[in-house]
Amino acid sequence: MKCVICKTGEVKPSSVEAEIKVGCDRLVVPVEAEVCQQCGEAYYSAEVLRRLEWVREEFARKAIVPPAVGKVYQVP
Ligand SMILES: [Zn+2]
Description:
By secondary structure, the chain is α+β, with helices and mostly antiparallel strands. Helices cover 20% and strands 34% of the residues. It has a domain at 11-60. Strands 1-2-3 form a three-stranded antiparallel sheet, with helices on one face. Residues 3, 5-6, 9, 36, 38-39, 41 line the site of zinc ion (ZN).
Protein backbone atom coordinates (compact mmCIF):
# COMPACT_ATOMS: atom_id res chain seq x y z
CA MET A 1 0.00 0.00 0.00
CA LYS A 2 1.21 3.50 -0.84
CA CYS A 3 0.94 6.35 1.65
CA VAL A 4 -1.91 8.78 0.87
CA ILE A 5 -0.08 11.69 2.52
CA CYS A 6 3.24 11.77 0.65
CA LYS A 7 2.06 9.43 -2.14
CA THR A 8 5.54 7.92 -2.55
CA GLY A 9 6.26 6.05 0.67
CA GLU A 10 5.53 2.39 1.21
CA VAL A 11 3.32 1.59 4.21
CA LYS A 12 4.46 -1.29 6.40
CA PRO A 13 3.18 -2.90 9.64
CA SER A 14 5.10 -1.61 12.61
CA SER A 15 4.93 -1.11 16.38
CA VAL A 16 4.38 2.53 17.30
CA GLU A 17 3.40 4.62 20.28
CA ALA A 18 0.09 6.33 19.64
CA GLU A 19 -0.35 9.58 21.54
CA ILE A 20 -3.68 10.64 23.00
CA LYS A 21 -4.29 14.06 24.50
CA VAL A 22 -6.68 14.41 27.41
CA GLY A 23 -6.71 18.00 28.63
CA CYS A 24 -3.08 18.80 29.47
CA ASP A 25 -2.22 15.13 29.82
CA ARG A 26 -0.78 12.93 27.12
CA LEU A 27 -1.14 9.19 27.03
CA VAL A 28 1.31 7.02 25.16
CA VAL A 29 -0.17 3.72 24.01
CA PRO A 30 1.95 1.08 22.29
CA VAL A 31 -0.03 -0.24 19.29
CA GLU A 32 0.44 -1.96 15.96
CA ALA A 33 -0.05 0.35 12.98
CA GLU A 34 0.73 0.63 9.30
CA VAL A 35 3.51 3.19 9.07
CA CYS A 36 4.79 5.06 6.01
CA GLN A 37 8.52 4.42 5.56
CA GLN A 38 8.90 7.82 3.92
CA CYS A 39 7.03 10.40 6.03
CA GLY A 40 6.19 8.37 9.16
CA GLU A 41 2.43 8.79 8.86
CA ALA A 42 0.72 6.05 10.91
CA TYR A 43 -2.48 4.35 9.83
CA TYR A 44 -4.48 2.70 12.58
CA SER A 45 -6.95 -0.13 12.15
CA ALA A 46 -10.56 0.35 13.31
CA GLU A 47 -9.77 -2.02 16.18
CA VAL A 48 -6.83 0.09 17.35
CA LEU A 49 -8.84 3.30 17.02
CA ARG A 50 -11.57 1.77 19.19
CA ARG A 51 -8.97 0.82 21.79
CA LEU A 52 -7.48 4.34 21.76
CA GLU A 53 -10.96 5.83 22.15
CA TRP A 54 -11.64 3.43 25.05
CA VAL A 55 -8.35 4.43 26.73
CA ARG A 56 -9.21 8.12 26.30
CA GLU A 57 -12.66 7.69 27.89
CA GLU A 58 -11.46 5.47 30.72
CA PHE A 59 -8.62 7.87 31.53
CA ALA A 60 -10.93 10.92 31.35
CA ARG A 61 -13.28 9.40 33.94
CA LYS A 62 -10.32 8.14 36.03
CA ALA A 63 -11.30 4.49 35.57
CA ILE A 64 -7.70 3.71 34.65
CA VAL A 65 -4.64 5.36 36.15
CA PRO A 66 -1.58 4.32 34.16
CA PRO A 67 1.87 5.08 35.60
CA ALA A 68 3.40 8.43 34.64
CA VAL A 69 6.59 8.16 32.58
CA GLY A 70 7.44 11.83 32.23
CA LYS A 71 6.23 15.38 32.68
CA VAL A 72 5.15 18.05 30.25
CA TYR A 73 6.79 21.40 30.84
CA GLN A 74 5.29 24.56 29.47
CA VAL A 75 7.81 27.30 28.82
CA PRO A 76 6.24 30.76 29.04
ZN1 LIG B 1 4.06 8.95 3.57
